[in-house]
Amino acid sequence: MDLLQSSYAPDDASSPEDSAAASSPDSSPLRLPSKSAAPAVDDTALALSAAASASRPLDPSLHLVAFNPTADQLWAPIVGPQHPHAPISSASGNRNHKLGHVEDAAVLPFLFDEQYNTFHRFGYASDPSGLHIVGDAQPQAPEPDTVYNLAPSEHKRRRLLAKADNQEELLPPEAKNPASDEWILHNKQSPWAGKKEAPPAELTEEQKQYAEAHAAKKAEKEARGEGKGERAEVVVKSTFHGKEERDYQGRSWITPPKDAKASNGHCYIPKRCVHEWVGHTKGVSAIRFFPKYGHLLLSASMDCKIKIWDVLESRTCMRTYMGHSKAVRDISFSNDGTKFLSAGYDRNIQYWDTETGQVISTFSTGKVPYVVKLNPDEDKQHILLAGMSDKKIVQWDMKSGQITQEYDQHLGAVNTITFVDNNRRFVTSSDDKSLRVWEFGIPVVIKYISEAHMHSMPSIALHPNSNWLAAQSLDNQILIYSTKERFQLNKKKRFAGHIVAGYACQVNFSPDGRFVMSGDGEGSCWFWDWKSCRRFKTLKCHNGVCIGCEWHPLETSKVATCGWDGVIKYW
């Protein structure tokens, strides 16, 4: 015991009171120092996490807190999530590179090209952060211009300034002296810039010949009355090409044969071309058979001429009508065929006598007529309707020559006029992609048809039973409308397959109503079955556009077609 006490005796530096207390019997017994067999633990990371937890705000959604928060943390306001694009310090441990944290950055090709071209054009560009301008030149505006956001006028102004600077460098020294003539010529601020008269140069022989030819043409135009915008007067004339205008019995050459009648009420699709009429020098725009009999065929052409051809016997040109100064757009027979109307791009509508070739009367409003039509009623054959380029349908009384009515509701040029409902109403189509139904004589639309899917309809034909209208739509299809009160679209009947977009190809019916036919922009004539809407046959007719097709009223398997190649073919 003494040995133990001596080994644990207090140091010499300790006070006597301490030693007396240790040796007194009333003091506590002696205790050995504690020893732990557990391995040493590094609590640095724990201390750091505790420090971080003590510094960050509490998440209000937590149900269990793993440390003792302070009062400031408990009463601190709710803090949102950390900003995803906030700068991250490498001290926080989010390192993805040996030098710290590297952010991914992407530049669109358009933005890169914009700054690249701006730098090479103006000498400055914006860095990817958008906060600084790099380059030797500095923009004058607070928001720097780029090559893509400059207006065309600014591009032009800068280009002219650059050109002027280059020209100033090339100017002679005399041009910089305001007192010299060179300065007057080259200074843009001078009102006489570039206007100093120089001695006239000698013309070459070629230039002299051209000037003389131009002066001769000008004098010739002035002699014809065209020099001051006046329209040259067209001499109306007609030439008869047949053998004789009257036969031995005194009958006119337009008289139909007495034995002409329908051989069979059943129509058939033609198979081959039996004749070609070649006489027009330019494209043929319209053809019409003689009403009821079809022994004559009238054709209008872009060579300003109208010709009538014999169909049954000699199959030659019988008469040529010349009265238009520009291309003929449309023609229309009267009910008996003794007279017909023609509309030309010279803005005139002419009423012809078919037999003699004389112009009975001429009508004009100063606009181009696109379609002409006579009222089909026998007692109203003197009433003319014309669809004009100025969106109007004009009605004339040909006896008095006065305009009796104007139908002005369309928003585009009028293309077709079709009489329905026993000629009490008529349907018009226009470039405004709509159909309008009018009561004859009353300029108020009683039915307006316009849908988002509709296209312009440059040709409309009436079915022989008068219950349906076939409209050639410029989206390469033929639509069928009812002629009853509602004029409803028949969605079950649609004829397609041909290409007519951009061309006013005529649509027509066979006399028995079993077939629908139409030309197309590739020179073919298409035939469809009316009931099944299936394509029946396609004939390659013309080199170019097949613009018109007509079924013979009596010959049930004969069809005439015309095209822009100037040929009329009989199938």
UniProtKB/TrEMBL annotation:
One of its GO terms (molecular function) is mRNA binding. The keyword ATP-binding does not apply. Residues 1-38, 191-256 are annotated as: Disordered. Residues 1-29 have a biased composition (Low complexity). WD repeats lie at residues 277-319, 321-362, 407-439. Residues 194-234 have a biased composition (Basic and acidic residues). One of its GO terms (biological process) is mRNA splicing, via spliceosome. Keywords: mRNA processing, mRNA splicing, Nucleus, Repeat, Spliceosome, WD repeat. GO terms for cellular component: catalytic step 2 spliceosome. InterPro entries: PRPF17 (IPR032847), WD40/YVTN_repeat-like_dom_sf (IPR015943), WD40_PAC1 (IPR020472), WD40_repeat_CS (IPR019775), WD40_repeat_dom_sf (IPR036322), WD40_rpt (IPR001680). Signal peptide: none annotated. Gene3D superfamilies: YVTN repeat-like/Quinoprotein amine dehydrogenase. It is found in: Nucleus. It comes from the Eukaryota. Coiled coil: none annotated. The keyword Iron-sulfur does not apply. This is Pre-mRNA-processing factor 17.
